[in-house]
Amino acid sequence: MLFVVHITSVMENEKAKTQTSTPQASGSGKKNSTTEIPLIGLDDAVAFVTTIHEKALEMAPMPDVAKGAGYGSPTSTSFYRRLVAARLFGLIGLNGAAITKRANDYLKPDQEDAKSKALQDAISGIAYYSELIEKYRGRKLNPDLVKNAISKDFNLMEQAAASAAKAFSASLKFSGLLSADEIVGVGTPSVKTTETPPATPPTPTPSVLNAELPAGLGTHTYELPLDKENKRKIRLNAPLDITDKEVKRVAKWIDATLLIDTTDEQV
């Protein structure tokens, strides 16, 4: 019996949550956070994933993952930004805290260049990073110009844009795509790869995330709005009848997969 829960997007939901729960500059309309690009560098994301792997937290519920990784709760800013960055870099899947093949290639390499390739694939997996790299390839990185571009392209306040620019620079250094004198891409392999991408892309586009699920024989699709504006929702594709045991199993799966904010009383 097939039972599938289709979340419009965990990261899109958290993005909406971040945008509505964080202050904005008065009258500016600019955001102070984003889930479209990392606000944490690849080095910190790798350290985060390493801790999850070493402490066997991959299948644990998010509250346990946060506590085991040294954070107060899964909704703390530090934990949340690391989780988002790890997902954007393709080191953790979109569900729960299970690490990906790319992360495994870095943590347990079986070839000489496996670790460096995993890092550079993590960089090239973010389209905006690839664009910036091609823009600055062979030139010295200008942090202020990168910050200004990010602020404009993602409608971010200056502090958030500065964090994103710092994360970009740190990620290039960690992956070997930034020289000691901060020349982009010099003496390093291209970030582009011709190899077959993973079967499950770590950072799918919104069109993929919001795609309709095939109903399938004997199933029905249900949709539950999470807010009054109907911007955040959960879509359920399930058999017309399920057992109480299956319902309890789904509840446990949701608890382990989603970042559940127990202080949020929004209906």
Give structural notes.
This protein has helices spanning 10-21, 42-54, 62-68, 77-88, 101-107, 114-124, 127-136, 143-154, 158-175, 206-209, 244-257, and strands at 4-7, 219-225, 233-239. With 267 residues, it is mainly α. The protein has a domain at 22-203. A 3-stranded antiparallel beta sheet has the order 1-3-2, with no helix packed on it. A hairpin with a 7-residue loop joins strand 2 (219-225) and strand 3 (233-239). It is globular.
What descriptive keywords fit this protein?
7% strand; mainly alpha; 267 residues; 11 helices; three-stranded antiparallel β-sheet; 45% helix; single chain
Q: How would you state the average pLDDT, rounded? A: 78
Report the principal-axis shape: globular
Element-by-element helix/strand order: EHHHHHHHHHHEEH
Strand neighbour order, sheet with most strands = 1-3-2
Strand content: 5-15%
Number of strands: 3
**Gyration radius, to the nearest Å?**
20 Å
Contiguous runs where pLDDT drops below 50 for at least 5 residues = 1-27, 187-217
Structural class: mainly alpha
Give the arrangement of secondary structure elements.
Blueprint (H helix, E strand, L loop, with lengths): L3 E4 L2 H12 L20 H13 L7 H7 L8 H12 L12 H7 L6 H11 L2 H10 L6 H12 L3 H18 L30 H4 L9 E7 L7 E7 L4 H14 L10
Antiparallel strand pairs: 1-3, 2-3
